[in-house]
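Workshop exercise sheet. Pairs work together: one partner reads the sequence aloud, the other fills in the structure field after running the prediction. Swap roles for the next sheet.
Pair: D.N. / O.F.
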Amino acid sequence: MTDPIADYLTRLRNAIKANHRVVEIPASNLKKEITKILHDKGYILNFKFIDEGYQGTIKIALKYDPINKVNSIKKLIRYSTPGLRKYAGHSEIPKVLNGLGIAILSTSKGVMTDKEARDLNVGGEVLCFVY
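Structure field:
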């Protein structure tokens, strides 16, 4: 697999389109941090790390609106790819939908959202956009 983050986002996208409640994804430390951010920001309902086997898995419970049966994640967009890495300084970090969405960055101080990176004055690789 050449791009595990794109695979992670694609698995989430496919589970949302198929109206699944739970999706299982192969684990890595970066994927675990992205999952924690999605949970903290309210995009997913719950998650669980299962450390079985060589790599382990992440079980993610997706969040749906009970009335309209619509998922809380509208779009997942991979921004930086292995073939074209995209970095942003602290003053150039993009805003997603004028602050309604989040950008997830990999910085020298860990994986964080665009707002946290602006507050800490750190830049880094812009991994993906979520809204």
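Discussion prompt: The first strand starts at residue 22 and ends at 26. What would you look at next?
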